[in-house]
Structure formats: C-alpha cells, structure tokens
Amino acid sequence: MTQAEIKLCSLLLQEHFGEIVEKIGTYLIRTGPQPLRMIVNGTGLVLDQVKKALCVLIQHNLVTYQLQKRGFVEYEAQCKRVLRILRYPRYIYTAKTLYNDTGELIVEELLLNGKMTMSAVVRKVADRLTETMEDGKTMDYADVSNTFVRLADTHFVQRCPLVPETPESPDAPPPPAPTLVINEKDMYVVPRLNLVGKGKRRRSCDEEEEGEPKAKKQKQDGESSEPPPDDGIYWQVNIDRFHQHFRDQGIVSAVANRMDQTSSEIVRTMLRMSEVTTSSSAPYTQPLSSNEIFRSLPAGYNIVKQVLDQYLTLLADDPLEFVGKSGDSGGGMYTVSILYFWTLSPFRPLIYFPLPLRFGSRCARIFRLLLRKKHLEQKQVEDFAMIPAKEAKDMLYKMLSENFVSLQEIPKTPDHAPSRTFYLYTVNVPSSARMLLHRCYKSVANLMERRQYETKENKRLLEKSQRVEAILASMQATGAEEAQLQEIEEMITAPERQQLENLKRNVNKIDASENQVDETIFVLESFIESTVKKP
Asked: What residues does the RNA polymerase III subunit RPC82-related helix-turn-helix domain cover (predicted)?
C-alpha cells in the first residue's frame, strides 16, 4: 500500500462520508486488521461514533469483519474497494447508456446506500422519476421492477450474502459476529414480488398531509410499517461485472481500430453471448460456434454465413490474436482472448501520454523501439531510432532515472569487467505500469485537493448563489411578478456572476480530468492483475 493510495483513499472517504468515517477508514488502511478496542484507542473517538462509522463502512462494503479464534472480531479496510468510489460516475453513466434513466437511478441508489432491498429501490426510483415528470404523469412500479430484473439477469446487480437460518437454542449464546453465506446459484435470482403502485411526488404529499393531526400521521405510518415481502434480501452493485463491460468495450474498440467496423461488431456479438457465462477473470471467453455467432448477429447487419466465416478466419489469423480458433465443430469454434488484450493495452498510455509530454517525441520513439526489440545496446538504439549518439544517450539516461527503462548487465567473464560486459536497455512493462499507476493516484489526489481548494475559496459566493436560487424558486411557485424576480436576480452582481462561471468551468475541467485519469488507472490495474494471476 503506497502513500499515494492511502492519501487518495482518505480524500475519497472524507468527501463522501465525512471526517469521522474518514478518520476510522484511514486508520484501518494504515494499521491493517484491528479489533474495536484498538480502533477506539487509536483514533481517540467515542465508542458510539466508532460503531456507527464502522456500520457505514460495512454497509458500503468498504470494511469487512472476521471472527478470530480467541473470540474477538477484527475489522479490515478494503483499500481497493475504497478506490472504486472514484469510478462511481462511470458505473452510473454505463447503466444509463444500457438501461436508460431507470437503470441509471437504480445503480445510483444502490451505490449511494450500499445495500438495499429490491422493493425499497423500486419505490425510491419510481418516486424520483415521478418528480421529474410533467404534472399528471407518474412512474409505474412495474416498469422500474422490470429494469431491475434486466440488471440482475445481466449480473450488473447481485444479492448480498445472508445470515444462514439455523435452529435457535435458548441455552447457546449468540456468536460475536454473524457469518454471511450465499449460494452462487441464488446470486442473481430475483424474488417474485407483486409491486403494484406508482411513484409519488414529494411536494403533493406534503400538501396533502399539511394540517393533519400528528396522531393521524403516525397511524398512517403504522399501517405501512409491515415488512416488505423481500425483507432480508438485499442487493448491491456487481462492480466486477461493470469492469467486464469496460474491458469488452476496450476489446471492441481495439478490433475496430485494427480491422473495421464489421469485425468489431462480430467480436461485440461474441462478447455479448458470453458475458454472463464467462468469469471476469477468465483468460478466454467460452467457445462459440460459427453458427451460434451467425444467429446472434444484430438484425441490421446483413452478413451472409460465408462472409462471416471469412471475417472469423481473418480475425483468427491476425497476429494480435484477439480471436482464437479452438475447434472445427459447428462451423468452427472461436474464443476471444482477454488475457492477450491486457498484455497490449498498457502500451498506449505508457507511450503516448507521459513520455512525449515529459521527455519529447524522440523518447517515445526509443521507448516504442525497446518494446518491440526487447533488448538493445546503446549503439543499436542510436542506429534503429536514427538519433545522434549524444541525444540518444541523454534520453536513455533520463528514462532510466525515471524508471521507464531498465539496464541489464550480461558479463562475458565472471569478474564483471566493464570492457567485457554487454549493457542492454530493456523495458520492464509490469514495473513501468506500477510506476505509472502510482503517478495516476497522485494525480487524482492533487485534482481532488484542487477542487476542494476552489470550492473553499468561493464558499461565501456559492452560499449566496444558493440562497438567491432558493428565493427565486419560492417566488416563482407563488406566482411573483417579473420585476420582482429581476430584482432578486440582481442581488448577484456581474463580477460575482463571472466568478461563478469561472468556478463552474474549472470544477468541470477537474471532474473531466479525474474521469480521464481513472480510465488509465483501470487499464493499468487490469494489466497488473492479469500479470499476477495465473490463467
């Protein structure tokens, strides 16, 4: 765990959950698994605050607990899971792209609350969608429920582990911590719920209840306090499935750049057919026959079977090996190579982003040459790259000092005499990927601190703008005249309005930069995991 990762985790926890949760989360990340007593002593917080903060972290899967042999419970922070908070906007946007506004709000609610029952998600999303609709229109629970089922069928949401049902014995004391289990077959099984109703508008509900006695309100709340039919069945977002979708999009984009649009659509069809049956960590997709691929192609692609076979043969024979042939039955069995994609994907961010900006285009040329040739002496680098000896020497030493390239000694004799030793420059790709990943973490942390600074410096102006917007909204609701509204708008002067626009533009740039850096982080993390895990 590097200092850059710890700092980024601390900033993410503080921004999303506040100072108390951030303090406990950072303490667990720095110290490792700790019991409750040590957390209280180490953070200096009140026991009740520590318990509530741990509940929040466990609810959002940011902390796990484990019962030790001595009988006490240890809590451990999940740093990688905390870093996934940075990718929440991308998850939500993906859900919107695939399942429209309803899917977007379902994923957003699950990410905001950590774990929720299906009935609670459906009601909350239906109410939020109804708020955005025109007067007289409402969102039906059945429509939201259908979208939730589609998300579960494609494994974008999954069930949370449950406490197993065991016969209660009055003499046996309860365990210090429950053990949660789940059957893999039930992870994506949606309970049969008969959710009948429509979304409610918050404003209209408040108006209807205005003036009602408090006892009547309590009675109405008591009537609806019955446990829902899916009580105890909680759902969460399946982050690995979203990562699998990002990976598939990257493969399709790489094939389109290498071949053409038709080839990428064929690969997209193969990935879509195996998206549920193939594990996110598998090196290859499940074998698919040419006949199955032909039947699953989109209706808009009028490709005859013979042309499809030619495209599959061309993809299988390509040196990049995105598609491999595993058999001849069913017109030919084909798979998509996921592992090989990750071995190629880090090259582009390593070459085209930091090197030209940091050292110039000639350094990028040398780096690309070393990637292709594996090992080269300095004289060979000069000749192949067509760069003068002095410049090539300076560039190699610069990249060597920044750990972009490494130097390998191959002695002719045991005494390692310099005159009888070959000095070969090479690129250690996993090491370079880790170095670049570390810098990406530092970049995101700096961007977050800059956004906090910009917001803090303009705090007074932001609060004034919010007050003016609230006054305008209330006056518009009561039917105020145009002159009165114009007078309220003039409370913010022209220089202040310009300052607000600059602030908004700067914050939007910072947010866009965070998302772009996170895309590089995803590629590098996936590549590093693929080099560590055995296929």
From this structure: 7-65
Strand 406-411 and strand 333-336: the pairing is: unpaired
CA triple 292-294-298, angle to 5 deg:
115
Under DSSP, is residue 490 helix (H, G, I), strand (E, B) or coil?
A: coil
Q: What is the pTM of this model?
A: 0.84
Average pLDDT over residues 385-413: 86
Tens-digit pLDDT profile for residues 448-473: 999 999 888 888 888 888 888 888 88
Distance CA 448, CA 38 (A): 30
The closest alpha carbon to 75, from 116, 27, 3, 9, belongs to: 27
Which helix (H) or strand (E) is 111 found in, with range? Answer: helix 88-113
- Cβ neighbors of 219 (< 8 A, separation 6 or more) are none
Q: Is 209:136 a contact under the CB 8 Å cutoff? A: no
Tokens of 510: 């910072």
CA distances to 78, 155, 338 from 279, in Å: 22, 11, 11
By CB atoms closer than 10 A (0-12, 13-18, 19+), residue 90 is middle
CA 3/CA 416 separation, integer angstroms: 37
Q: What is the SS3 assignment for 226-276? A: CCCCCCCCEEEECHHHHHHHHHHHHHHHHHHHHCCHHHHHHHHHHHHHCCC
Q: What is the SS3 assignment for 316? A: helix
pLDDT tens column, 77-136: 999 999 999 999 999 999 999 998 999 999 999 999 999 998 899 989 988 888 887 777
Query: How many helices (H) and strands (E) are present in the chain, helices listed first?
Result: 24, 12
